[in-house]
Amino acid sequence: MKPLLVLAIVAAAMPSAAQPREVTPEDLERVYEEVKTSHRYGVVLEGEPGTMVDSPSVFRHDDRWYMVYIQFNNIGYETFLAESDDLLAWRKTRRILSQGSGSWDDKQVAGYIALQNTEWGGSAGLGRHNGRYWLSYLGGALEGYETDPLAVGLASTTAPNEPIEWTRLEDNPLLHPHDEDARWFEAVTIYKSHIIRDPDEMLGAPFVMYYNAKSKVKEAERIAMAVSRDLVHWKRLGVEPVIDNESGISGDPQIVRIDDLWVMFYFGAFWRPNAFDTFAVSTDLVHWTQWEGPHLVEPSKPGDQKYAHKPWLIKHDGVVYHFYCAVGDQGRVIALATSKRMSSPTSFDLR
Description:
Layout: H1 3-12, H2 15-18, H3 25-35, E1 39-45, E2 52-61, E3 64-72, E4 77-84, E5 90-97, E6 108-113, E7 133-140, E8 151-157, E9 167-168, E10 189-197, E11 207-214, E12 221-228, E13 234-236, E14 249-258, E15 261-269, E16 275-282, E17 289-290, E18 307-316, E19 319-328, E20 331-338
């Protein structure tokens, strides 16, 4: 079946996308007031000597918090797990996706949790499919920092809280920039992906993936989407990106549900000064209205004076925890901002 015909069939199965409720300025303001985090807690996780850490994704399992994060070791990315009792103090455990597969993902394996409960202030737990827990990952065969081309892979486990290697899908990669149906804005590399489950199947499928990808046009990064019925076989949705700021980077989406609104947290870079976290809002998962007001986090301290970006937000017991990648005088680390002031050990302050 031809890709355009597939897209037409999928579009026909989207009744809510045909006439979505308009996102109003009041909707955007309401979301901003709900998610803003004015207090910098500081650095919560650093890499091993000579490495850089990045892209936190946080979930709850068996009454404990876990963070999947990635580490660059001068060869490429690998994926690690950390744990916490309170979302503030984090203990590193071990690697869960390792380099050296000898295949398309030999040097790059950067993982991001999938099928998390999207309810804002909800359980933050991971859902299962076919009895297993899942993550998608950025994969590549070449050494270096995000060396093109990169594609999307999938891995699973029966115990997401255990520091053990996850099992990679044999049918990987799921999406590759050189696929026949790859669109103009994803022809170079596909970066971070986030997979959610839509129980209402508004788009005709239960699984929806958002990801940022790079094109040959100004080498800008834009956010796109795809849908699947089984997590393995994916159909790209639409002919244009869902977030496009025409230059710089729009990337690292995370999707949550706040009341009747879908909210996408993502970072922007270079289409406005610096790198910062912001959000967009949708009523149908397809059409997104970007927030144009104050950034959720932006460079402000020596510890994140270069970049404050790559968001993952959790609301727990009335407090919003905004994890992000901070780049400054402490290297590339993972930091935290909160909606209420938390006591911070001096050694972990952003200064």
